[in-house]
Amino acid sequence: MRMLVSEMAGRASIELKSQELGVDLGGDRELLGRIVERVKEMESRGFTFEAADASFELLLHEEVAGKRPSFFKIEHWLTTVERAEDQSIVTKAEVTVTAQGKEISCSGSGNGPVNAFDNALRSGLKQLYPELEVLELTDYKVRILEGRLGTGAITRVLVETSDGKGEWNTVGVHENVIAASAMALEDAVTFGLLRQGRKPE
């Protein structure tokens, strides 16, 4: 039976979910308490881990190791959508990342800003991580959450990614849909590299 991490998450459900994902918390009650509080805090901001096992697993690794698994850092990004004179829609993205001590500027195009962002990010990182060639964005869901505490609407993005052998889901939350998508895609690529056996920097 798959355990869900939800707003009702307590110690028992998170412990069971961790075991299911193969992350050993070692019976550390203090660590478990920190994870429970972090999940509750993130869910209060609009995150959901019920459909984002990969993002939850990255959170577990971060709490266990004291730092987030990382292969790269996104320094800057820009997306543009333009309607050309021939009525075609042209979408482009530029992404600057730091990985293995190198700064890489990459660009990509796509059928929308998120697809363009994904293509740009992976085209740059493939220079250092050729195994990213097999990754493919297979599903993308957006949900607009009602404003909280008088703020504007919050956007939750769920991304499904495949490496041809399996799929995993990640989540991002932000007022801006592209920023939320960037968070989910960063988790997706990071988790994909972990699946390919890469050791984080």
Would you write up a description of this structure?
- The chain has 201 residues and is of the alpha+beta class.
- Among the domains are: 11-65, no CATH class; 72-128.
- It is built from five helices and six strands, in the order H-H-H-E-E-E-H-E-E-E-H.
- The protein has helices spanning 11-21, 29-44, 53-65, 113-125, 177-195; strands at residues 73-83, 89-99, 102-110, 136-145, 154-162, 167-174.
- A hairpin with a 5-residue loop joins strand 1 (73-83) and strand 2 (89-99).
- Helix 4 packs parallel to helix 5 (177-195).
- The longest helix is centred in the last third of the chain and has 19 residues, at 177-195.
- It starts with 10 loop residues before the first helix and ends in a 6-residue tail after the last helix.
- The model has no long low-confidence stretch (mean pLDDT 89).
List the helices and strands and how they pair.
Blueprint: H1 11-21, H2 29-44, H3 53-65, E1 73-83, E2 89-99, E3 102-110, H4 113-125, E4 136-145, E5 154-162, E6 167-174, H5 177-195
Antiparallel strand pairs: 1-2, 2-3, 4-5, 5-6
Helix pairs in contact: 4-5
